[in-house]
Fold this protein.
Amino acid sequence: MNCMAAGWIADACDGGNARADPGCRRFGEGGGRAAFSPFTGRRKNLPQCCRQIIAARPNLVVISEIALDSLDKMSAGTQAPVSQDADGRAGLHATLTAFSQAGLKVAVIRDVPFSDDHVDTCVARALWRGEKPSLCDQKRAEAANDANAAVERNVVRAVPGASYIDLTSQFCDARTCHVFINGKIAYRDQHHLATAFAETLEPAVEKAVVERVR
């Protein structure tokens, strides 16, 4: 199976944040928050990174990017355009549409829940005090933001050939998002997964990806 994982590629293709290609602006470049500038949708306006993906003709393009509400939390206290969320969603739609019009299937993986505290520090402190790691758990309404995810899901599903992969149930129940799962710490900071825990998600991710290639 020829599958291309494209972290941050939604931003890369709309002229915003990217790490994949020198021709795409990187996150945080110039300081401050991300800037979204959706491209017009014409093939000639696509950055090199996106043209390379289309030329490679993968069976599936997998997109993973930070949730807009998590970006808002990380950038608290900095000035940002009022239209940032709308621009971000427009950029995602434009990116997915470009791949769809090129005949490529795309899977967008929902971002992981966001913690208000650095989880590794919080859990270490709790264990040192003889307390349970669950002390560091977050309310689902605050960590997962299901309402914003529903908007993102609708954006994705509106594009032919695009689908949405949601693994939030691996972290959260109906009310709580956990930071210590099956004996493993889930995060190494506020939103990046700890390697040992991330490896436990491999079967679920593989199953979801394979289903979308068939």
Summary: Residues 1-44 have pLDDT under 50 and may be disordered. The two ends are 10 Å apart (CA to CA). DSSP finds nine helices and eight strands in the chain.
